[in-house]
Amino acid sequence: MSLAKLTVSALAIAAVSATAAVAQSRDNVQIAGSSTVLPYAAIVAEAFGENFEFPTPVVESGGSSTGLRRFCEGVGENTIDIANSSRPIRENEVATCAENGVTDIIEVRIGYDGIVFASDIDGNSFEFTPEHWYLALAAELPVDGALVANPNTNWSEVGDLPDQAIAAYIPGTRHGTREVFEENVILQGCEDSGAMEAIMEINGGDEDAAEEACMAIRTDGVSTDIDGDYTETLARISANPEGIGVFGLAFYENNTDRLQVATMSGVEPTVETISTGEYPVSRPLFFYIKAAHIGVIPGLKEFASFFVSDDIAGPFGPLAAYGLVSDPELAETQAKIENEETM
Amino acid sequence: MSDATAPSPTAPTSSLLKQDERTRRRNRAETRFRAYGMAAVIVGILALILLLTSILSNGLSSFRQTFITFPVTLAEERLDPQGNRDPAEMARVTTFGYAPLLGQSFVEHVQSIGIETGLGPREMAAMISDEAPGQLRAMVLANPELVGETITLELLAGGRIDGFFKGRVTMASAERDNNVSPEQLLLAEALREQGVMETRFNWNFITAPDASGQRPEAAGLGVAILGSFYMMIVVLVLALPIGVAASIYLEEFAPKNRFTDLIEVNISNLAAVPSIVFGILGLAIFINFAGLPQSAPIVGGLVLTLMTLPTIIIATRASLRAVPPSIRSAALGLGASKMQSVFHHVLPLAAPGILTGTIIGLAQALGETAPLLLIGMVAFVREYPSAPPDGFFDPASALPVQVYNWTQRSDPAFVERASGAIIVLLVFLIFMNAVAILLRRRFERRW
User: Fold this and answer.
1) Is the C or the N end of chain A the one with fewer CB within 10 Å?
2) CATH class for the region spanning B222-443
3) Residues 61-90 of A with CB under 8 A from B
4) Per CATH, domain A114-282 is 3.40.50.300
5) Is the pTM higher than 0.80?
6) Chain A: residue nearest B169 by CA?
7) Which residues of B touch A39 (CB under 8 A)?
C-alpha cells in the first residue's frame, strides 16, 4: 500500500506547488529573438546582473520572427518582455500585437551589424563588388534579350577575380541576414550590372517582377544555404577552403586567425567603415520593449537603459569590442527609453 | 519391399568425413556471416573510439583553467569617493570602475617582478578575464573594509591566453588573431615561469553559471546541472508512480477488450513519437494554458515525463509479465486478494525490471534537447534556481541545452567547453546506466 500512498502524496505535492507557482510573480526579465542580437544581449545581461541588485535576465535565441511572434502573444507574466530583432518590426506584426493587447511598444536601436564576406585565411584574397555576387549567384541572367540559367562557375568569369571555383555559403531564408544580403548585395549588383534594365526590357517593364528575378538565388549547388549558425558556415569553409562565406562582423572578429575578409566595393569592413556608412552591407539591430511590463517586471526599464548606456553600447564599450558598430545617435535612444516613448 | 534388384556395389556417394559441395557452401555462408557480424561490431567500436577520442581530446582541457595571481590595490578614491563605506554608495561604482584598477595593479606587478615587455598597459590589462572586475566588485561590496587595502587575488586569465597554455592558440595563430598578440603570449610565458600564471584544475567549470560570448574562460555548467537535476526529480516523482500504476492496472486488472487494446497500441505508438512533438504539446498545455512559467524546470520535467512515460510503462509491463503466473496462483490459492497478490508478490519480483526501465527512461530524458527548445529552456541563464520546491519554477538551463548553446558561440574557446560539457553529460549517463545494470544483476531472479 505504501506505493499507492506515495503516488497520491507525490501528485498532491506537485499539484499544490503548481498552484503556488501561478500565484508567484516573475522577478527576472525574459528576452527572446534574433540569434544575431543574442550575444550582445547576453553580454549586457551578464553585466547587468553583476552591477544591479536585479537578477540576471534570461536570454533566449530563436530568430527575429519567432521572438516578435512570442512578443506579440499578449501582456502578462507568461509572455516575454523584450524581443530582439535584426530587422525593424513589420506592419503586420504590429497589427498582431495590437490584436493581442500589446499596444505600447518601445523600439530601441542598439547599433549596427556589418555583414562580411570571408574565406579561408590561406586562400586567395578577394575584392568584391555587388555586381560580382549578382553574376555569381543569380539563378538566371539576361543574355541577348532572354533569361538563361546562370552559366558562371568560376570567380574569374564574373570579373577581375582570382581563378577559383564559386562555392558560396550564404545564410538560409530563416535568417534576417539573408534579407539584407539579397537587398544590399544581390539587388544592388543587379542594378549596377545593368541586368535590372535588361530584365525589365524582357518582361515589359514590370519592376517588381524584375526585382524578384534579380534576387532569385541559384539552386544548382554552387550556392549553399546555411540554416544553422555562423559556426556551421565556418565548418563548411574549413572543409572546403575554396568556399566563401557570409558572416557577421562580430563572428569574423573572433576568428581572424582562420578567416580573411574580402573588401566590398574597395572598402574593408571595420567598425569605423561601417559606422560611417562607407562599407555598404550593414543593418541596424533592434530590441522591442513591452511598455506595459515596465513597473511590473522589476528591472526591465533599468536593463533597457543599461543596454544603451555609453558604458555598454558606446564606441568603447564591451559591445563595440565584440563587434557591434555603435549608433552615433545613442543619446536619442537613451532619451527615448527614459521617456518611455512608444512607437 | 523394393524390387530393385541391382545392389549398389559402389561405396556411399557421400561421407561424413569428406565434405560435399553443399556442406561446403553452407559452411562458407556461416563463415561469411560471422565476418559480417565481426565487421559490424568493429565498425561500431571504431565509431565509439573516434567519438570518444574527439570529445576527450577537445574537452578534457576544459576542466583546467589558467589563473593569474597578483596583488590588487583597492584605491579608496576610486571605489568609495565619499569615504564613508556606505554599501549603497559604493554600489554606484560599476564593474567599469573596477576594471582599470585591476589593469593598473597588474601592470605594476609585472614591472615590479622585472619582466620586460613592449606591451602598453591596455594590452596587458586585456590578458585578464572580463569576469574579474565583477568578482572583485562582489567581494568588495560584501567586505567594505577591504577598501584601501592591498589584497592578493587569483583571477582568471583571458580565453586566448588560456588557449595558449592548452595549445589551442599558437604564436602563428596569434600573429593573425585580432584578439591576442604574440607579445602577450610571450609575457604570459614569462609570467608562468615566475609562477604568476598557473594552469590548474578548475572546479568552476562544473559549478559556475554560463557566461557570455566574451568570457569563455568563466563559463561553467552549474545552472545546467542543477536544471537537469531538478527536471529529473520531476520526471522521477511523476513518471514512476503514474507509469507503474498504469502498467499494473493494464497488466493485472484491466479486462482484455477492444478499448484496452487501443490503449496498448497508443502507448507503443507514443514511445516512437519524436520528442519535439512533446515540446509543442508542453508549450500549448503547460505554458499557454496552465500558465506555468517559461524556461522553468517544472515545465521541462512535465514535458519529459510525458516523453518517458511510454518507456516506463512498456518496461514495467514486460517485467510484470515475466513474473510466472504460478506465483499469482499460489497467492490467490492461499486466500490473498487480487490486489494483495500483486502488491505483495508480483510487484516486488518485478521491481528490478521496473527500476532498470525507469533509469533508462531517465537517462534518455537527461539527454533530450528538442522538447526543451520550445519551452524556453534553450536560453542564456546565469542565476542559479533556488532550492526546491521554489526552484522548480525558476529559470534554468539543462546539460544538453548547454552543449547546444556553446557550439553556436563564435569564440573558438567554446568548442573546448562544449566538449567538456559532453564529457560531463556522458559521465552522468554512464553512471545512471551502470546503476541500472547493477540493480538488474543484483536483484533479478530467473525462473
Assistant:
1) N
2) mainly alpha
3) 61-62, 77-78, 80
4) no
5) yes
6) A257
7) 212-213, 409-410
